[in-house]
Design goal:
It comes from Mucilaginibacter lappiensis. The chain is of the alpha+beta class. The chain has 9 helices and 10 strands.
Length: 268
């Protein structure tokens, strides 16, 4: 199974964060356990995920599994929980008995909520008990429903966010840059985004590398590729590449090959 090209969402249930955490948490999710979904799960022995620079908690409620990161296979035990940045391609090898509770953050948001700069976790699989209290993880692992798990982790993240009282100028500026880029239909280059926010290209580069760990040009390219490819797979006939800052369909195809390493025709 390949992320975006195939519908990974149908084997998970999702919940959006509360309004206060909406700028920082993309979603909470958990594996679907309903018997009706078991046949679908059997179709997917692995899930390949492309770079997104979104720190993600994987809290294991089920069986052991393997994760491939930077050409190395890692064994994740049944009682082991991990943090992955997803700055590289990541493949998680799945089993039908998988039961994973996930918290996916926006870029830079680990620092905004927990004070952890995501650059320090690049190319690593971090044991989650190094980040979250052991007692919290055990509470989430109790035999409770998805909604209760969301409430537990969200209460903790909100409290941490309030305690940190984060007004980091770097994080705010990076978020403003990303917002400006998306608001302009992903048509602007780095210099134009910087110009809109009255900063220099040198400054925006320094901020992005400090907060996310990647240059803005590269991050914007990944962001545009992910959004455009998702839109294309949902409605190929009505897809207009110019809406996403591409010159034409050929330009879009070339960018997707660079981003995913795969041709669109392989998944049509």
């Amino acid at each position: 199974m390949v992320e975006i090209f195939q519908d990974i969402r149908k084997i998970y249930m999702f919940s959006k964060p509360c309004e206060e955490l909406l700028p920082h948490v993309e979603f909470y999710s958990q594996s679907v356990l309903d018997h009706s979904a078991q046949d679908i799960k059997h179709e997917f022995s692995a899930v390949k995920m492309f770079p997104s620079w979104t720190p993600t908690f994987y809290i294991n409620l089920g069986t052991p599994y393997y994760i491939d990161l930077k050409h190395t296979r890692h064994y994740v035990k049944g009682d082991e929980d991990v943090l992955i940045l997803r700055n590289e391609d990541v493949t998680r090898h799945k089993l039908p008995a998988d039961n994973i509770f996930t918290v996916k953050f926006n870029p830079g948001s680990l620092e905004a909520i927990l004070g952890l700069n995501q650059v320090s976790v690049m190319d690593k699989i971090i044991p989650l008990h190094h980040i979250l209290p052991w007692q919290l993880l055990q509470k989430i692992k109790q035999p409770i429903c998805f909604e209760e798990r969301v409430e537990i982790i969200q209460s903790y993240l909100l409290a941490a966010y309030h305690q940190l009282n984060n007004h980091d100028h770097y994080i705010k500026m990076v978020n403003d840059c990303i917002g400006e880029y998306q608001a302009a239909g992903m048509q602007l280059n780095t210099s134009k985004v910087a110009e809109k926010l009255f900063i220099t290209s040198k400054t925006i580069n320094r901020y992005f590398n400090r907060v996310i760990g990647i240059a803005p040009k590269n991050y914007f390219s990944i962001l545009r590729g992910r959004i455009a490819l998702t839109s294309f797979m949902k409605d190929k006939e009505n897809f207009i590449p110019m809406d996403y800052g591409y010159y034409d369909l050929s330009h879009f195809h070339k960018d997707i090959v660079n981003f995913t390493g795969q041709r669109l025709t392989k998944h049509l």
